[in-house]
Design goal:
By secondary structure, the protein is an alpha/beta fold. The protein has one domain: Rossmann fold (3-Layer(aba) Sandwich), CATH 3.40.50. It is 28% helix and 30% strand. It contains two helices and four strands, in the order H-E-H-E-E-E. The protein has a four-stranded mixed sheet, with helices on one face. Strand 1, helix 2 (44-53) and strand 2 (58-69) form a beta-alpha-beta unit. The longest helix has 18 residues, at 11-28.
Amino acid sequence: MLENVKVLYSEEELQKRIAEVAKEIDNDYEGKTVTVISILKGAVFFTVDLVKKMKTPIELEVMQVSSYAGTETTRENQDQEGSGPQHRRKRCLDCGRYY
């Protein structure tokens, strides 16, 4: 099964870029605490690697979202288990801006 998998980036390349992103975040949020929200399940390993390299104080949260209601897609992300609203008044990190 793995013979069909093409490696796009080596582990070293990934870890180097994650370290660069961590440094950018540290610079952008110096002296502040940020809430890092990891979307379950796909972003967990990236998030762990990222926050281990950060010096910025963080609060780590996870959020489960789904675009499905039953067996049909809603084309909108549905917040699961009430995991979103309590973060509206916190300084939250959007990792998407660091791609």
